[in-house]
Amino acid sequence: MKTDFLVIGASVTGINVARELKQRFPDNTVAVIDKENGCARHSSGRNSGMLDAGFSWPADSLKARFSRLGNQQLTQYCESNRIPVNKCGELVIARDEDELSVLDDLQRRAEGNGVKMEQADPRSAREIEPRARVCEQALFSPASAAVDPVAVMRQMEQDARDAGVRFYYATSYLRKAGDEYITTLGTVQAGYVVNCAGLYADRIAQEFGFAANFRLLPLKHSYLESSDVPGAFRTHISAAADLSGSYPGVHIALSVDGKARLGPAVKPALWREQYHGAEGFQPFEMSRVVGVGLGQMFQGGKEICKACLQRFTGSAHSRLLSAGNRLAREIRAGDYRDWARPEIQPQLVNTETHRMVSDFVIEGDSKSMHVLNTVSPVFTCSMPLAQHVCDQIAAVGR
Question: Residues of 352-365 as b/e, b for ≥16 C-beta within 10 angstroms?
Answer without folding.
Answer: eebbbbbbbbbbbe
